[in-house]
Design goal:
- This protein is an all-alpha fold and 190 residues long.
- It contains six helices and no strands.
- The radius of gyration is 17 Å and the shape is globular.
Length: 190
Amino acid sequence: MTYKSAFVYMLKAPLLAYLIIAGFFSNIFLSGYTLIIPTIAINNFYDHSLYGLIVSIESAAAILGLLSIRYIHIDEQISRERWGLIVGGLSVGVTGIFLTKEAFMLTSFILGFFYARYNVGLQSYIQINVRNELIGYFFSMIFICASIAVPIGSTLFGLIIDQHAIEALAIISAGITVINAIWFVLISRR
């Protein structure tokens, strides 16, 4: 078995292909969001400590998201998590409209909580839906795509954030929302 075999297998299973592609683009938008927080904290709120606070909130939310799995189970289609990420994506846009510290903190909490749950659900989905001999290759492809996406997102959003931070929030909001909404269209056709 090779990466080529895993890639061919993935192309025959549109939902698996979408998970890899969506993960790539999600990481682009998330790296943009992570990059924009210190810019807005400093340029709009004149608060250098806000970035540290928001990163701490994201981390605490991720821990709570992981702990919540015990009580709110992840379904096979990762539906709750996708809805949560749609809400998170929309809240990024609302944050750009109202531009308050509290909105940034709430948005970061929502994204941290549901991305942690989503990542566990994604790994479970792959373990259930991919042939055993290809699972390692799929996980490798996910991490390779994420490793490529983060510098791309950082570069793209780094170029526009200084001059167009609010517009960048709108792009990030649309990106996260659309990526997760497409999943529901794909599973409804299944």
